[in-house]
Amino acid sequence: MEALVGQAVSIGSKLKAFTAAHHDKIEQHALTRAIVEGTITRESYVLLLSKFYGFYAACEPPLEQTTFWQQAGFDIKNRRKTPSLRQDLQFFNIDPASLPMCTDLPPLQTDAQRLGFLYVVEGATLGGQVLSRALATKFGFTARQGAAYFNSYGVENIGAMWKQVQALLTDFASKHLELESELLQAALLTFQKLDTWLNA
Description:
Elements: H1 2-27, H2 30-37, H3 42-64, H4 68-72, H5 82-91, H6 111-139, H7 148-151, H8 158-175, H9 180-199
């Protein structure tokens, strides 16, 4: 049991350290920074939502194409980001079907790669709490009107949802030490591909 606990700290620490520079780069993106600073316009906010939709709509199908989630007892479909993004875009009278899709995707062919991706996108839901508060202050947007994506699972559920991801990563890392590098690299590439897409 102690070995598992050590592994839990190890994989979490390694992922955080390995992706730190790229995490910070995404966090300092002009549009997300503008939300925090209260300087974002409605048009720029809609552009950001459109970008996120184009990324997740392309990534979610290959993310789910594995029996791994079911075998692990992990509800991956409940983690989809496209429904909340679709809701937000429709609030602004934008048809999601008209938006460009990302074609340069992070690697999502193996379970280790999918977990690396999951680490990045689920970690982003934590930061979304800060952005949702800023959007509420700036525009009055709520989880039901205009800011469903950044409210993600709601304040009452966000902690438990993240702990489930951490537990899954811990279990996988302890059973597949030989895949640690692949998992880390996939997380890094997810940050890189998302950053490239946001700036395209």
